Amino acid sequence: MSARQAKTVSARKAVAELESVKRISLPLCCGLPQTLMEALVAEHDRLRGLEIISGLQIAYPFLDESLGNAFTFRTWQCSPAIRHLVAAGRVKYVPMRQGDAVGVFGPGGVWPVGAVLLQTSPPDENGDLSLGVSIGHTLPLARTAGLVMAEVNRRMPRVGGRASINLAEVDLVVESDRPLLEFPAGGRPGPKEEAIGRYAAGLIPDEATLQIGLGAIPDAILDALSGKRDLRFFGMGIDRMVDLIESGVVASDGRPVLTATEMLGTRKLFDFINKNPLVRGLPLPETINPRVVGGIPRFCSILSAIELDLSGQVNAETIKGRQFSAVGGSFDFLEGALFSEGGRSIIALISTTPDEKISRIVARLPAGSAVTTPRHSVQYVVTEYGVAELWGRSLTERAEALIAVAHPDFRDGLREQAGL
């Protein structure tokens, strides 16, 4: 790529360059460039028809009702804030693996982006700008996009690894000095989550590399790891990992113990990752990729589910046929864990809905349900009642194992429906 001439401009002048662009890419969550986004929203009439692509966001100002239908959003995630817009057509949910984002939205993809918006740290002595909390798809797409604009925020942490872009690869710079958007943890785990945490932790060996998401169950699992040793974390950084790293359960060989492409947390996490040699940032193709994950010994993937049937099919996306969540990076990590030497793939869920009136382990997935994970790829299922190992089990053995970890009130009904 030939060197560009990074020019410092106002946010308004920067977004004016998007008038001839059809599609732009944004970073995820805490990486949203707020100053550029405010200018884009302010100029929505001039930019009407622009399509925005990205994944999970903390805020969706570009979809505010006051903007009418100025922008559409094409995404591989489906958060509560935008579920109602999927049916309306303003949000175009694509049922795809997050690891495919660079291919789908790159130059040879189905929906190539014309511009990439970044949020970075200030440049170092070599002119390198760290993408800090959101590297993901953004860095590789910026390397091939026709227009790259960076909001250079003094408060963006600098993360080591392959997490930077050089000023020579940027067209426009907008300077800012403002707090990053934060992704605070949810409520404390309850007794059911704590039970799941203990069972799941029992499956995780010492010296494991762990991929885990957000929520009460992941927090409970992390809480239950206090007796482990030489752990590492991979994929995403969250606040709770800071406590575990500082408690000494991680490896002490001097190599990074947190390797992530996205950081979803608060100032606590941001301060920890800044210039920390224990932290390594990598772009999406080097993290959410089963070929990469499969090469990591003892890789353990912890995933959630909405429901699963007695054959082991997992629905993590739909409720009554309506899009509720997404594939995200789940299948990339699950498949990688199966390839990993000594790796383990764990589906963790509470056995019923919160009111305990509906079992989340069902005889058959309802019509219209998405099959996020096929039955042949499921290894362990954990509920508050124990662990069901499905790997290498027959259909009858799978059903029996899953019924044993279902809520007691539903076990007889499940046995009857399964003909057991």
Would you mind describing this structure in some detail?
The structure is a single chain. The chain has 420 residues and is an alpha/beta fold. It has 13 helices and 23 strands. The chain has helices at 11-16, 34-42, 83-88, 101-105, 138-142, 191-201, 216-223, 239-247, 267-273, 290-293, 330-339, 395-404, 408-418; strands spanning 7-8, 23-25, 51-54, 72-75, 91-93, 115-120, 128-130, 147-153, 164-166, 172-176, 209-211, 232-238, 258-264, 279-281, 299-303, 307-309, 314-315, 318-319, 322-323, 344-348, 361-362, 380-383, 386-389. Strand 11, helix 7 and strand 12 (232-238) form a beta-alpha-beta unit. The protein is globular, with a radius of gyration of 22 Å. The protein starts with 6 loop residues before the first strand and ends with a helix.
What are its keywords?
globular, eight-stranded parallel β-sheet, alpha/beta, 24% helix, 420 residues, single chain
The overall pLDDT, averaged over residues, is 94
For the largest beta-sheet, the strand count, sense and barrel status come to: 8 strands, parallel
- The side-by-side strand order for the widest beta sheet comes to 1-10-8-6-2-3-4-5
Radius of gyration: 22 Å
Low-confidence spans: pLDDT under 50, at least 5 residues?
Answer: none
Beta strands, count: 23
Shape: globular
How much helicity do the residues have? 10-25%
Strand percentage, roughly? 15-25%
Number of helices: 13
Structural class: alpha/beta
Distance N terminus to C terminus? 64 Å
Topology (elements, then pairings):
Blueprint lengths: L6 E2 L2 H6 L6 E3 L8 H9 L8 E4 L17 E4 L7 H6 L2 E3 L7 H5 L9 E6 L7 E3 L7 H5 L4 E7 L10 E3 L5 E5 L14 H11 L7 E3 L4 H8 L8 E7 H9 L10 E7 L2 H7 L5 E3 L8 H4 L5 E5 L3 E3 L4 E2 L2 E2 L2 E2 L6 H10 L4 E5 L12 E2 L17 E4 L2 E4 L5 H10 L3 H11 L2
Parallel strand pairs: 1-10, 2-3, 2-6, 3-4, 4-5, 6-8, 8-10, 11-12, 11-15, 12-13, 13-14, 15-20, 16-21, 20-22
Antiparallel strand pairs: 7-9, 16-17, 18-19, 22-23
Helix pairs in contact: 6-7, 12-13
